[in-house]
Amino acid sequence: MAAAPVSDALVFFGATGDLAYKQIFPALQALVVRERLSVPIIGVAKAGWGLEQLRERARASIQEHGTFDEEHFQRLCQLLRYVDGDYREPKTFSRVREALGGAKRPLHYLAIPPSLFATVVEGLAQASCLKQARVVVEKPFGRDLVSARELNETLHRFLPESAIFRIDHFLGKEPVQNLLFFRFANVFLEPIWNRQHVRSVQVTLAESFGVQGRGAFYEEVGAIRDVLQNHLLQVVGLLTMDAPFCSDPENLRDEKARVFKAMRSLDPASVVRGQFRGYRGERGVSPTSQVETFAAVRLFIDSWRWADVPFYIRSGKCLPTTATEVFVELNHPPRPIFEESSLAAPNSVRFRLGPDVLISIGARAKRPGGVMRGEDVDLVAIQHPGGTMKPYERLLGDAMHGDVSLFARQEAVEEAWRVVDPVVGGTTPLYEYEPGTWGPREADALIAPHGTWRPALCPSGRAELPEAAHPEATGDAMTAMH
User: Fold this and answer.
1) Domain check: are 233 and 119 in the same one?
2) Is residue 177 domain-resident?
3) What is the pLDDT of residue 387?
4) Pairing verdict, β 198-206 and 271-276
5) Is 376 part of any known ligand binding site?
């Protein structure tokens, strides 16, 4: 297959914003260092700035959030351009067209609120900036299935699907890449990677911090919209998809889309929402907020490979540690042979996806001595830091080269919203939990038919044990908050 043409300019809207400061400028600098970026970079915003102010903003950003080197920074500065203007004014896009000069295949990156996507894309089209162009849009891609479809229709008025790159920075993380590679570069998992051998699957995205001053934003999204509909369902997709028949990016996205179509829409009875104590006192948060900061769900995939295997997914803020893990529990042996408890832990496969990479196999081995008794051991296949290539560096570089592998396609986005649509918008009870615990005890009841939540590993490699997960509460233990 012929290589896609490389974009010959990068235009990023929202150049003075928080995302640009924390993520985009360090990613651009890293791309320059790796010699993957040598085309004009045009920042666009309405801040009353000039080019020198943008360069100083870039310097401060890279010094705080990246790896600063004066020589490489000067190379980045030589590529930077700046257009100041209102996104609702046609003359702003005329100036963008002028700044592009002779560029024919620009990449437009919209690091702006989704409510402005249509305005900016229409402005670019009217200024003749979309011919042979690509457009990268940030999440959240809609708020529900209806709004996602409307947004897709708007983008398709001006762009073919092949030119739309829906970014999910989670898919650019090295550990997530390793999950995909490990599955399809090795053959030993395939015979057991199905309903005949897998008893259940757990996916945990835990954050030890709260909303960090972004209460007003979080009031608009909540845990289900923020991470479950996108990050975590994407991980489940990579975990459960069949192998693409070749390395073409569209084949990989075909297989992932097929899994999303097989996912059963969530049953409200299989969802537990929680809110950490103190959230309602955060700046920008309603004192009567019903927004969840924790969510646990039971999901099923109605495919031949995964029918009836429960997928337990949880995510929350103010939990005991910050980590993302997948835990695949295999079936017990048909019957115990040795003189030990039949309650011994079954075999398992663990993928630690953050903050570092860990892939391990949980097995049973004999203890030293004269008695045939065993102990649980972890056979570590790989363990190392998360890698030096940050998500935005990888994803922006891929978009510049037209590689769609790690970007969501329209049908997958809409299917993901179909899955969560029955439970967004506060349709289920909300339970309070104490910061530093593993969420409300109702989440334990959700998984009880298949055991208990496996504790995620803390950064030191030790499990964060859940002994103190549910402190004694007065009265109703954990009372529903509505």
Assistant:
1) no
2) yes
3) 57
4) unpaired
5) no
Q: What angle do CA 167, 173, 176 make, to 5 degrees?
A: 105
Place of tokens 């949980």: 362
Query: What is the number of structural domains in the chain?
Result: 2
Q: Of these residues, 65, 108, 197, 231, which one is catalytic?
A: 231
Range of the domain at 128: 9-138
> Quick one: 242 and 385 in the same domain?
yes
- Residue 207 assigned as binding residue: yes
Asked, for residue 457, whether it belongs to a domain, the answer is: no
HSE value, Cβ hemisphere, 13 Å, CA-based, for 232: 31
Q: What is the CATH number of the domain that holds 107?
A: 3.40.50.720
CATH number at residue 184: 3.30.360.10
Q: Is 308 annotated as a binding residue?
A: no
Residue 169 is labelled as binding a ligand: yes
Q: What is the CA radius of gyration of the chain?
A: 24
In 364-390, which positions are buried (b, 16+ CB within 10 angstroms) versus exposed (e)? eeeeeeeeeebeeeeeeeeeeebeebb
Catalytic site includes residue 401: no
- What's the burial of 280, exposed, middle or buried (CB within 10 Å: 0-12/13-18/19+)? middle
Mean pLDDT (10-residue bins), the chain, 482 residues: 83 94 95 94 95 97 94 96 96 97 95 87 95 90 90 91 90 84 91 96 96 88 93 95 85 92 97 97 95 98 97 97 94 76 77 87 85 84 73 93 89 94 91 97 95 70 43 36 47
My answer on whether 216 and 339 are in the same domain is yes
Whole-angstrom CA distances from 194 to 180, 197, 309, 361, 412 are 16, 6, 9, 16, 22
pLDDT of residue 399: 94
Instruction: Give the pLDDT score at 400.
Output: 95
* Cβ atoms of residues 134 and 107 within 8 Å: yes
**Helix residue ranges, H only, 80-232:** 90-100, 117-126, 145-156, 174-185, 215-223
351 and 445 inside one domain: yes
Q: What's the confidence (pLDDT) of residue 430?
A: 97
User: Is 61 in the same domain as 193?
Assistant: no
Estimate the share of the chain in helix, then strand, then coil, as percent rounded to the nearest 5.
35, 20, 40
Q: Are residues 193 and 305 in the same domain?
A: yes
173 is in an annotated binding site: yes
pTM of the full predicted structure? 0.88
Say if residue 219 carries a ligand binding annotation: no
Q: Which of 470, 436, 471 is nearest to 452 (CA)?
A: 470
**Domain limit, last residue, from 88, 121, 138:** 138
What stretch of H or E contains 376?
A: strand 374-384
